[in-house]
Design brief:
heterodimer; A: Arc Repressor Mutant, subunit A; 2 domains; 9 helices; about 0% strand; B: Methylamine Dehydrogenase, Chain H; four-stranded antiparallel beta sheet; 3 helices; about 10% helix
Chain lengths: ~160, ~425
């Protein structure tokens, strides 16, 4: 670790924020909100968190828990709808299968979306995904199988 | 097989692409804005404390226009001069011929290698061959026929029809080697004598074990596209026979033991995808590989690839339009399936990998050449080497084994690491 904690956190932030934002924003369009809050918490306790084996895992866990926090879901949902209108402007000239699937993913329950994002886009194992979500690896695989089945079903309906 | 493996199938690949599309559509916040936001959050919560995330991530523009020749693993070579300015779709500005610097190198062991270097000669640029037997610490000249630098010829099609123009060097053993591009000159006695072989234009050569592969085409300049053949020689026979044809783009070869790849980089101003092919039987038979970069609405395509033991195949992806962030994808099964994309924080032009974890990337900025290293499979990147080179030079890099890599940043010097990129030493090539 560098002797300057300020520089160390700076490097940590620059390194991890884009990566975590990419993964989590695929699950929730308001992920930047949760992620910034998680980084702010990390900054405030950086002397302790920097000694953890996986500081990024800690931030990911805090951000995911924030995303999954049902007490805030309603308020966030409204904010997300506003963000959705402002940001989610699909290119209508590029409506390929991937975008159809992307739209269908947005219709999944939050737990399933987060599991998909961490497992596939984040490249985590089901155990690591479960650790971030606060559930077991078996529960993660259940969510993943459920999500895949639901997506296949929806895509099949659209194809018909 | 783990419990997760059954979920990482073809549908999983589609899901990864769809999630990436969602992510790209959602992440419009600039890093600097994000830093400010985090600072404000902390100030709100604890007025006296200050968040230390101050600097935004460097955002490099997408205007790599310098002529760059990039070489790599074992000795694979990619010339991206014509299509480096991918996102601007405009022709690169004229580039003065380089009169110095390393054009190519080749190694048959960690200690024994050759370098092809440029030398001014009258009104043009010549090529000279150097040999080292001590890992690059000292170099000695090797006698060759008079060689011209192909890239320095304003009308190479005319000049190189009568004179010996080359741009690459490859040795299969301490005795057998070739100078090529477009000429094809062979030695079977370690460089004491050379013989020009009658051949079409040869743009790349690679060798492994008892065989060699080369790429041939009919024209010296392929600005409007060429079709390439892959030809194979059982070493020592002198007989090259075609094993694959109609390779498109600007192709290069990769070989590791009996695994071989052809990476045909498309013109990024066009619409064609990369032409990727793989062989697992020493180049005898080939199968097409779908471009793993074609997962975004920005039209990403493969511009470089590299292989490592245990079926590792890494592809570097560049975008045809915004968002322009390049990324890498890694396969652990010889290119059948690929993992999630990992962004690369600069204008990356070539990738060379030692393993699924340790990867080097050569980048070109407006006035610097940079080599980035990742030790976690492309998730995070740190600068390994950086050298100002204001006139636009060449980045050459490649791995000899999982610990030893070499880099040239444009001058007549080679940087060597023997600890997988942690520490580097510099040696001049010119005797």
């Amino acid at each position: 670790m560098t002797a300057d904690p300020a520089r160390h956190f700076d490097a940590f932030f620059q390194s991890e924020y884009p990566r975590l934002l990419r993964v989590l924003s695929s699950a929730d369009l308001s992920a930047d909100d949760a992620l910034q809050e998680a980084f702010a918490k990390a900054a405030l306790s950086w002397a302790r968190i920097s000694t953890y084996e996986d500081p990024a895992g800690w931030v990911r866990h805090v951000a995911v828990r924030r995303l999954l926090d049902e007490r805030r879901s309603s308020r966030r949902k409204h904010a997300a709808i506003e963000r959705l209108e402002a940001r989610w402007v699909p290119d209508t000239t590029d409506r390929d299968a991937s975008m159809d699937l992307a739209t269908a993913i947005g219709e999944l329950p939050t737990q399933q979306r987060v599991a998909l994002s961490l497992f596939y886009l984040g490249g985590l194992t089901s155990a690591e995904t479960g650790e971030a979500m606060g559930i077991s690896a078996g529960a993660v695989r259940f969510h993943l199988h459920e999500a895949r089945a639901r997506l296949r079903e929806r895509l099949a309906v659209r194809d018909d | 097989m783990t419990d997760d493996d059954d979920l990482r199938d073809g549908f999983g690949e589609e899901l990864t692409a769809a999630l990436l599309a969602r992510s790209r559509a959602a992440t419009t916040v600039q890093p600097v804005d994000t830093v400010v936001t985090v600072e404000r959050r902390v100030h709100r919560a604890h007025g006296r404390r200050r968040v230390l995330a101050a600097a935004a991530a460097a955002v490099v523009g997408a205007s790599a226009t310098a002529a760059i020749v990039l070489h790599g693993h074992t000795t694979a070579r990619v010339n991206v001069a014509a299509h480096a300015s991918s996102t601007t779709a405009s022709a690169p500005p004229p580039v003065e011929p380089r009169t110095s610097g390393i054009a190519d190198w080749t190694w048959v062991s960690a200690d024994h290698g050759w370098a092809l270097v440029r030398e001014p000669c009258g009104a043009t640029v010549c090529m000279a061959l150097r040999e080292t037997t001590d890992g690059g610490r000292t170099w000695a000249p090797v006698r060759t026929p008079a060689l011209l630098d192909t890239e320095a010829q304003s009308d190479a099609a005319v000049t190189c029809a009568t004179q010996l123009c080359v741009s690459g060097v490859r040795f299969a053993t301490p005795k057998v080697g070739w100078l090529f591009g477009p000429a094809f000159v062979e030695t079977v006695d370690g460089g004491r004598t050379w013989k020009r072989e009658p051949a079409p234009v040869v743009t790349d050569v690679e060798a492994s074990g008892d065989f060699a592969l080369r790429l041939t085409t009919s024209r010296v300049r392929c600005t409007s596209g060429c079709a390439f053949d892959v030809e194979r020689e059982q070493l020592g026979t002198g007989a090259w026979r075609s094993v694959a044809s109609s390779v498109s783009g600007h192709p290069s070869l990769l070989i590791l033991r009996t695994d071989a790849y052809v990476v045909g980089v498309p013109d990024l101003a066009g619409t064609a995808g990369a032409d990727l092919r793989r062989s697992h039987d020493g180049g005898k038979t080939w199968t097409a590989v779908a471009d793993p970069c074609a997962v975004t609405s920005a039209g990403h395509v493969a511009i470089s690839a590299s292989e490592a033991p245990d079926g590792v195949f890494v592809v570097l992806c560049a975008a045809r339009k915004k968002p322009t962030t390049p990324f890498v994808r890694i396969s652990g099964d010889g290119g059948k399936t690929f993992g999630a994309p990992h962004d690369v924080p600069s204008i990356a032009l070539v990738v060379r990998t030692a393993s699924a974890q340790t990867i080097l990337i050569g980048c070109n900025g407006s006035d610097t050449n940079v080599v980035l290293r990742s030790t976690d499979g492309g998730v995070t990147w740190r600068t390994a080497l950086m050298s100002p080179f204001p006139t636009g030079g060449a980045v050459t890099l490649g791995w000899e084994n999982p610990q030893t890599a070499r880099v040239s940043l444009g001058a007549n010097a080679i940087w060597t690491t023997r600890d997988a990129g942690g520490a580097w030493t510099k040696n001049a090539v010119a005797p």
